[in-house]
Amino acid sequence: MKAETLTLVLVNLAGIMERADESLLPGVYKEVGAALHTDPTGLGSLTLFRSIVQSACYPIAAYLAVRHNRAHVIALGAFLWAAATFLVAFSSFFQVAISRALNGIGLAIVGPAIQSLVADSTDDSNRGMAFGWLQLTSNLGSVIGGFIAVLIAPITFIGIPGWRIAFHLVGLISIIVGTLVYLFANDPHFSDSGAKSSNQMSNRTLWSEVKGLVLEAKSVVKIPSFQIIVAQGVTGSFPWSALSFAPMWLELIGFSHKKTAFLIAMFVIATSVGGLFGGRMGDFLSTRLPNSGRIILAQISSASAIPLAAILLLVLPDDPSTGVMHGLVLIIVGFCISWNAPAANNPIFAEIVPEKSRTSVYALDRSFESILSSFAPPAVGILAQHVYGYKPIRKGASESEEIATDRENALSLAKALYTAIGIPMALCCFIYSFLYFTYPKDRERAQMEALIESEMRELLSDTMPEGGDHSQSQPFELEEPYIKDRTIIEVDYEDEVDLDPDENDEKPILYASRHSL
């Protein structure tokens, strides 16, 4: 097996375990709530603690990915989240909250490294498909984590509750995957030995590297298309975070653990196939409509969530006998609302920044989006309890009273879920509209920067003596003054350029070179 293929396989395995770890707690909310004596608001706060720490650590991910082998960074993240997952399985509520917060550190440093590796290994014509496959394999991790958690939750082994065993199991597998990634995965930006790359990086002080990353982050944040995608991502990721209550909602309706696990698995599989479809269609439309194809597809996906979620949460009866209907609607919803990231967001990010800035753009995106979307689970809990009338089952209630209370709570939770899905998705669809004006200009600006970097690289290679210490495996890095200046490159796209040669004017030469790529 080729090194590149093996690396992609191992990176996708790491993505599987990352999502499996994230889906563990939502899959056993009901059991954890009973064991730790907490309500939906408290359960949502556990995810909030992890997400806040995760958001704060994304800049660390960008720094590590620039200075170190990204395969090793992914392995380190797997070891960290595995250790935190083991701690959760031994803990009380307070200790669970601390452990989930620590878990966010490991998860934070893995995601941007995985995404940038995928972006570096593809081009504009197949990048959407590659991210679609990444979404499919990552969602497989959600199926594994959620399925294992829900199925093992009601079991007790040697006096240990099943939900705690599920955490132990995922932690153990994560250690194995992290070890494989560390030993066999390869970062194309580093040589086989890593010696030249390490020596080149060691010439710069820690402060200069941090300063360079800050300047790079500032240049990325100033890109209008980045700002728009982050804005829609904040609203668009809110519903996905809110859906962590979906297993609890299905169980309150009356579905058994096995049926709930099956329905959630069908939903996640549908989102996986939908992501693959969205990525392929995004690539297709980008060749037919290069300035708008990806954006149109993303708007169709986000807009479809509003009526489909209403049918699922508000129209279908709260009756466990309607499992087939619930499953069918969950499949349709999952397939249609999962196109945004592989079809538009991730490919566009790779097109509007230089290659060496890709880890930074993915890290910053995750950081900004996670900050607000992390409030979705607590928001759903607060809405369900204080707006829509969710009531805990009173002590000593009969079985019939418990069933009646569960049905009422299912309706309250469904209303809270739809509030957290419908409104943010409408805003998400609207915000995408601004990309029609900024994306073409930002893409061409990035192409111009790539052209300038290429010309400077050629000039340096021509002036370097033979046998010089220049690593071809390490990407070309510009000096800090250029990083400052490159954010103010202005390209007039509307004025017609005069292509008549003029020995005193270099603009026609640059223009012709750019369009000959």
Describe the protein in words.
The chain is an all-alpha fold and 517 residues long. The chain folds into 2 domains: 439 residues, Up-down Bundle (Growth Hormone, Chain: A), CATH 1.20.1250.20; 61 residues, no CATH class. It contains 21 helices and 2 strands. The protein has a two-stranded antiparallel sheet. Strand 1 and strand 2 form a beta hairpin. Helix 4 packs antiparallel against helix 5 and helix 13 packs antiparallel against helix 14. The longest helix has 34 residues. The C terminus is likely disordered.
Biggest sheet features: 2 strands, antiparallel
CATH topology of the largest domain: Growth Hormone, Chain: A
CATH second-level architecture of the largest domain: Up-down Bundle
Low-confidence stretches: 193-199, 467-491, 493-517
Compact summary:
Residues 494-505 have a biased composition (Acidic residues). Residues 494-517 are annotated as: Disordered. The protein has 517 residues and is an all-alpha fold.
Helix-strand layout with pairing:
Blueprint: H1 3-27, H2 29-36, H3 40-67, H4 70-88, H5 93-120, H6 127-152, E1 156-157, E2 160-161, H7 162-184, H8 195-202, H9 206-221, H10 224-242, H11 246-253, H12 257-288, H13 293-315, H14 323-336, H15 340-352, H16 358-373, H17 376-386, H18 399-432, H19 435-463, H20 480-485, H21 507-515
Antiparallel strand pairs: 1-2
Transmembrane segments: 73-94, 100-119, 140-160, 166-185, 261-282, 294-316, 323-341, 416-439
GO molecular function: transmembrane transporter activity
Keywords: Membrane, Transmembrane, Transmembrane helix, Transport
